Amino acid sequence: MSNKVIHAIYNDDDVLMDAVKQTRAAHHHIEEIYTPFPVHGLDKAMGLAPTRLAICAFIYGLVGLSIYTALMNYIMIQDWPQDIGGKPSFNYIDNMPAFVPIMFEGTVFFAAHLMVITFYMRSKLWPFKQAENPDVRTTDDHFLMEVGIHGNEEELVSFFTNTGAVEVKVVDKH
Amino acid sequence: MYTFSSKLKTFSFALMILGVIGIGVGFWQAPKTIEDVEKILADSHHGHEVAHAEKSSHNLEAHAVDNPVVAEVVVDSAKAIATDSVAHQTLDSTVVAAAPVADTHDNHKKETVAHEANHDKEHAEHVLHQLQNKPWAALYVACLFFMLISVGVLAFYAIQYAAQAGWSPILFRVMEGISSYLLPGSIIFFILLIAAGMHWNHNHLFLWMDPEVVNPASVKFDELIFHKKGWLNVFRFLGTAAIILVVWNFVRFKFRQNSIAQDSASDIAPYKKNFKLAAFFLVFFIVSESIMSWDWIMSVDPHWYSTLFGWYVFSSFFVSGITVIAIITLYLKGKGYLEHVNTSHIHDLAKFMFGLSIFWTYLWFSQFMLIWYSDIPEEVTYFVTRIEHYKLPFFGMVALNFIFPLLILINTDFKRLTWIVVMAGAVILFGHYVDFFNMIMPATVGDQWFIGIPEIGSVLFFLGLFIFVVFTALTKAPIEPKGNPFIEESKHFHY
User: Fold this and answer.
1) CB distance B369–A88 less than 8 Å?
2) Rounded Cα distance, B119 and B102, in Å
3) How far apart are CA B285 and CA B279, in angstroms?
4) Which candidate from B72, B373, B412 shows the least CB-CB separation from A90?
5) B314 with B293: CB under 8 angstroms?
6) Which of A145, B95, B208 shows the shortest CA–CA distance to B87?
7) Min CA distance, A121 vs chain B (Å)?
8) A97, A103, A96: which is closest to A61 by C-alpha?
9) Are B290 and B249 in contact (CB under 8 A)?
């Protein structure tokens, strides 16, 4: 089944924002938008759901805190409670101030690294990944909106030409 | 223009009247003579005796089981008690004999048997001083706390000017209103410092102010304080306090004057003056803040010192000041006076509350952990007395000032909700009052502390005065400043 999409190319982010609003108002489904830099407010204009990465990071931080607490408790208190310089290794609370720097760093380490890895996995980024760039100019100074064609092709092309696009192409998407 | 609602005005007067009654009751209840204290001690001693007997028999049982861990714990706590009683001795200017003053420890029963005949009398005198200090210390903590809130707001205001912040100019009048409390607050505070220097009505908040302590011929002579008398003397103390308070008040006066002048100015000359003043003030502030924390807070424990103390005190009142800005902004917004303040402004203030709460915890923990880790007796007594006698306030404030804001204010959506910010703000303010309580009380009233009528009365009085002064100042100028070069950006601030 041939799946045709429209590539509407803009050269200004303000024009792009207006075009996104018009497209949404006309109920055309935006497949994807390619921009050379983050455009403030674009996600809201597109109606994208907010990210949940921060929630992941919070949970990863709790995981890190638990792991490092358990680690210090096992090593320093349970397994071999030596007297090292008179520090009280009778139970975890007694000696806790000495473990806080490790607990803190462990929390930050887990929150940061696992969140970054989650980001790579969710956005499908890895070394040697094939770049998915529909037009090389979108990494430099052009903005590209990709909209699926359902219905009248000419009507859609003229719609996007009217939104201020410098170029409107109809492309076959494998 | 803001009009002071008559309900709020009545409320503030009610708080002040209740507060004055509470303060008066505190002074009236304080014992006048040693005989009063001996009676109080005799009344409470019986109960103590029974509890201690039970406790020591329990310890004996534990020994009999011959559990090495328990035995070690006992030895360890005995060590702590030993250092503690040294602390008591050095703090207690009345001790002549070397008998330990420890009174609430496991080995109490054994000690009472071996008591010297004059020990009870010394103990009573020690407790008398603590109980006579109680109403003074309650007044001092509340007065210092509310005054420093206005200082914290003034520092925040200066930072906003110096950093040319684009989001905050819409809140400048609120900050000016809160910092207006500085003048009456610092006058009352200076009177309290004089009261301490002149020992009015048995005021012994500052041990080193007793001339006998630095007199080599006296039985109260304290060599450690004697060597510090170049800094710790009443003349220098009051002189420095006067200079610091006068400069702070003068800067606040000029800030306000220029800010009002900017409303009707044709250029931004007043704004530029404030910008330069802010730069000067921040330099002066950080030096004077350090000195003020040594003088007004650290010197109640004249045998103890800590290098990051000034920063620690700063973080405590700075976060309280920002919290008060947030609460008063939300109150005024709720009454419909700040139409250009949106949830993004509140969000920014809540982020400051969140970040600075963690900054406070960082300093609190750094100070505590370094001293705990090295365990040098002359330093660690500070925390030993607090953990022994102030366990709940000392660790409770960490929950109030760190764990609660950490869990509540970490959420972006929560930082925009009025009720969340007000609730978190109330907890933070209470927590930092407890922080100041923990800094002053252990050295002045020791284990005789209690949050009772004198403490609550003092807080109510200064709270009432604070509300009255701040909201009166808010009526004196338009609630939204004009002419500031960043005001348009601030009105449209969106995060």
Assistant:
1) no
2) 11
3) 10
4) B72
5) yes
6) B95
7) 24
8) A103
9) no
The distance of A72 to chain B (nearest Cα, Å) reads 17
Is B391 exposed, middle or buried, given 0-12, 13-18 or 19+ CB atoms closer than 10 A? exposed
Q: Is the ipTM of this complex over 0.85?
A: yes
CA B143 to CA B288: how far, in whole Å?
Answer: 18
Q: Among all chains, which residue has been given the structure tokens 């009365």? A: B457
Mutate to test the interface with A, among B67, B70, B73 (most CBs of A within 10 A): B73
In the chain, the amino acid numbered A161 is T
Q: What's the full length of chain B, in residues?
A: 495
Beta-carbon contacts below 8 Å between A and B: 16
Whole-number Cα distances in Å, A168 to A27, B30, B284, B400, B479: 18, 88, 63, 59, 52
Q: What is the mean pLDDT of each run of 10 residues along chain B (495 residues)?
A: 92 97 93 83 63 47 43 44 45 43 49 61 87 93 97 97 95 96 97 93 91 91 93 95 97 96 94 96 97 95 94 97 97 94 96 97 96 94 95 96 96 95 97 96 92 95 97 94 93 90
Cβ of B369 within 8 Å of Cβ of A90? The answer is no
In DSSP notation, chain A reads --EEEEEEEES-HHHHHHHHHHHHHTTPPEEEEE-SSPPTTHHHHHTPPPP-HHHHHHHHHHHHHHHHHHHHIIIIIII----STT---SSTTTTHHHHHHHHHHHHHHHHHHHHHHHHHHHTT--TTPPP--S-GGGGTT-EEEEEE--S-HHHHHHHHHHTT-SEEEEEEE-
| Cβ pair A100, A65 in contact under 8 A | no
| Residues of B whose CB is below 8 A from A88 | 76
CA distance linking residue B460 with residue B433, whole number of Å = 12
Nearest Cα residue to B400 out of B360, B369, B348: B360
Of B69, B73, B373, the CB nearest to A98: B373
- pTM score of the predicted model: 0.87
Rounded distance, CA B271 to CA B273, Å?
5
Q: How far, in Å, CA of B10 to CA of B261, rounded?
A: 32
* B-chain residues near A40 (CB < 8 A): none
Query: Taking CB atoms and an 8 Å limit, are B369 and A58 in contact across chains?
Result: no
Contact A97 B368 (CB under 8 A): yes
Which amino acid is present at B417? L
Q: Do B365 and A88 touch (CB under 8 A)?
A: no
